[in-house]
Amino acid sequence: MTGDTVECFNCGHENPSWAQVCRSCGYAIQPAAPVSTGPGGLFPTDQASLTSIGGTLGAILAAIALGLILSGLIPPAPNIAEQTPSPTPSASASASAAPSVAVSPSVVPSPALPATVIFGTSWDNNARKIVGETTTFTTASPGFAYAISLAAPIGVDRLESAVVRVEADGSETVVQTREQGVVLVDKTLLSDGLKLKYSMAQLYGSWGKGTHILRIYRGEELLGEGTFTFS
Fold this sequence. Notes:
By secondary structure, the chain is an alpha+beta fold.
């Protein structure tokens, strides 16, 4: 092989130095340039790749450093929970914190009935009032009478009266029903009354001794009631 020719490795024929194949046998004279397949490992080793990776890492490190610098320049956000002053308790709040005192429930009185019931030994129809006013009767009493008094006219011409005897255990025994105690009255009057025609012996025999309650009704309305005693 000279500077101007190249000898074929197959047949020994002299060929120009620029020939790619032998002119005699066609054998390849110039070996093909090796094709680069890139880095053989997981990490690149060529200069261009290393330069690119180094630049990327440098940019990341620069960004981190800049962030740290800026974070030192910007003051931290105030802690609202720590800076908010605690509310000063008002007088009403302090009072509510005091222990409550148990208060006994008030006893609600029964509503007042429209009529007042009055007892006595007789009824004066002319004077429109009870005679011998009392709530305690005996067999020697001259009689038994009762009357009602209202702030407004009676408004009806018929009332009913019922009598119950209060037993020792507090229960009530009916000794006169409403139907048995029908009373005719003057509906224009504010008060009216009556003396029972029965003798005290008859009343004692029918009602018995003890505490009694007389209830007067105007229709279905309890108009008034009163307590008396047969002793």
